[in-house]
Design goal:
Shape: globular
Largest sheet: 8 strands, mixed
Oligomer: single chain
Helix content: 10-25%
Structural class: alpha+beta
Radius of gyration: 20 Å
Distance between the termini: 34 Å
Order of helices and strands: EEEEHHEHHEEEEHHHEEEEEE
Strand content: 15-25%
Length: 352
């Protein structure tokens, strides 16, 4: 079964320092829920992000950064580093994906939530934190609409206010490939980035795509999920479990900066249909198939159809899986280290 061509996309995880000190975490994570017209399920949390556009890959960005004397050499591809195919060179008429995917994630964050991850060209700070642009003289909703209607306008916005996209403060985090499943009509390869802010910025939700936005700690997100107030798709469940024992934003920022530019695994989940639910299995789990094919389903999704989710745990030592109902995460178990932040506890992580 050949699938439709994969689409390329970029997404952004935004952590912001929380001065209130109201929980064990000193930061909050930005999530939002999409409008009814753009979401399959109500109250499903998302990270900002969207499809890569031609404007994100334009060589004009190279000239723009050179004009503003902003060095970007450290983003150049390292031959000894292995990255998923979304990072493959695209030819002389397009900039390297190390930059263009960052532009896409920054642009989508601005379009959807009005946060401009931009800083003055003269800013030479070595801090692992990113900056965001805000000014009384800037009509953010106006520029959101301009960038949304013409993605190239992001460069006009930067010219107007003397800033540049802060791609040096946006760090590579993970790469996801959509699974092959009957309810998933479009498949994306998505590069996920992470950035840290020193304060919580004002948001301007885009009226057609965003229903509501939330700044929450990892504990608050899981509490909302357990009480059926929030729904977490499996990739968001997977990403959030990394932070559950990381309470310091400074620790995460230093880790992200140090790790940026290193090898990236491709996270390609697969489904098994069970007697009582669905199981989404991630790389590293004992039940993950060998010699997986990214373009055709070459495993038996009904291999465990006579078993329950609890029964397929028996005999396994390495877990990285989610139990699903209608593509919503019901339970998540993980005890592996994939090279990113992981809970400090050695026990299997269970979220019900």
């Amino acid at each position: 079964m050949l699938t439709k061509p994969l689409r390329n996309a970029a997404s952004m995880i935004i952590l912001a320092r929380d001065a209130s000190k109201s929980s064990r975490f000193d930061y909050k994570i930005l999530t939002f829920t999409r409008s009814e017209k753009t979401s399959i399920f109500d109250n499903t949390l998302c990270f900002p992000g969207g499809q890569l556009h031609d404007s994100d890959e334009s060589p004009s960005w190279t000239s723009f950064f050179k004009h503003h004397k902003v060095p970007t050499e450290q983003l150049k591809r390292r031959n000894e580093v292995t990255k998923p195919f979304i990072y493959d060179p695209q030819g002389s008429n397009k900039i390297e994906r190390e930059s263009s995917l960052r532009f896409a994630a920054i642009r989508e964050t601005f379009e959807e939530l009005g946060i401009a991850l931009c800083s003055p060209a003269s800013d030479t700070s070595k801090s692992p934190f990113s900056d965001y642009f805000h000014s009384k003289d800037c009509d953010i909703p106006f520029w959101q609409k301009q960038v949304h209607s013409s993605h190239e306008t992001l460069m006009n916005f930067c010219d107007k206010f003397g800033v540049v996209p802060n791609i040096m403060g946006v760090y590579e985090w993970s790469v996801w490939l959509s699974p092959i499943f009957r309810k998933i009509l479009k498949r994306f390869t998505t590069a996920v980035f992470i950035t840290m802010l020193d304060s919580i910025p004002e948001c301007h939700p885009e009226e057609h795509e965003v229903h509501d936005y939330l700044w929450l700690t990892p504990d608050e997100i899981y509490d909302g999920q357990q009480k059926d107030k929030l729904f977490l798709p499996p990739h968001l469940f997977y990403e959030l479990h990394r932070f559950i024992d990381c309470t310091s934003i400074d620790e995460i920022a230093n880790f992200a900066k140090q790790r940026d530019g290193q090898s990236l695994p491709l996270i390609y989940p697969i489904f098994y249909i069970l007697k009582d639910s669905l199981a989404m299995i991630f790389p590293g789990d004992d039940l993950y198939p060998k010699n997986i094919n990214f373009y055709e389903k070459n495993y038996d999704e009904r291999k465990f159809s006579d078993k329950t989710y609890d029964e397929i745990i028996v005999g396994c030592k390495n877990f990285c899986r989610a139990e699903m109902e209608l593509l919503h995460s019901k339970r998540f178990l993980c005890n592996i280290d994939d090279g990113l932040l992981k809970p400090k506890s050695e026990e299997v992580i269970k979220f019900r």
